[in-house]
């Protein structure tokens, strides 16, 4: 199938309060040759970056816990354990990941290792997220973290044993997609499970 089978017909901005919500009409040539026209609402989101901090010697990870309205409206209590993350806001992905780690967790890190680049929910948003892992040193915690109060952030910093964090994925206590993927990446590429060589 060629990539020129879709043509954007019209874009209408429905709301632009936090992120632009557009109604997009497009024409798509189906595989059977028929032309169909569809309209979908899509959030035009900025790209983001997330970083999972780990400590090899202690086999630990640092996560954040904060309130997420979407999760609450879907039936969760809304307080999710997550890797530190934020919108790029014009910064390079690695630069943003380092800044978010400092702002949200209080840990100062020098560099990050690229893990994955993913579209978050391509049926309804344009957002792409750049995922990283980075080793942290407990001696390099500069402050308590907690995010930016001016942006309404109220973030709890949570240090967990890595294997406990993996178990929390299996029990459903960690349900944030980017964080689950980063924990699995860390298991496969860096730390392995307890007792396994990495």
From TrEMBL:
InterPro entries: NDP_pyrophosphatase (IPR004385), NUDIX_hydrolase-like_dom_sf (IPR015797), NUDIX_hydrolase_dom (IPR000086)
Catalytic activity field: GDP-alpha-D-mannose + H2O = alpha-D-mannose 1-phosphate + GMP + 2 H(+)
PROSITE patterns: NUDIX
Coiled-coil regions listed in the entry: none
One Pfam family per UniProt: NUDIX
Motif Nudix box positions after renumbering to this chain: 86-107
Entries under Gene3D superfamilies matching the protein: Nucleoside Triphosphate Pyrophosphohydrolase
Necessary cofactors: Mg(2+)
Residues binding Mg(2+) 1, per UniProt: 85, 153
Domain Nudix hydrolase per the UniProt entry, residue ranges: 44-182
MF term (GO), any: metal ion binding
Keywords from the named record: Hydrolase, Magnesium, Metal-binding
One Gene Ontology CC term in the entry: cytosol
Residues in the signal sequence: none
Residues binding Mg(2+) 2, per UniProt: 100, 104
GO biological process, one term: nucleoside phosphate metabolic process
Superkingdom of source: Bacteria
PANTHER family, per database record: NUDIX HYDROLASE DOMAIN-CONTAINING PROTEIN, UDP/ADP-SUGAR PYROPHOSPHATASE
Family: Belongs to the Nudix hydrolase family. NudK subfamily.
Subunit relationships: Homodimer.
Protein name: GDP-mannose pyrophosphatase
Species, as recorded: Massilia cellulosiltytica
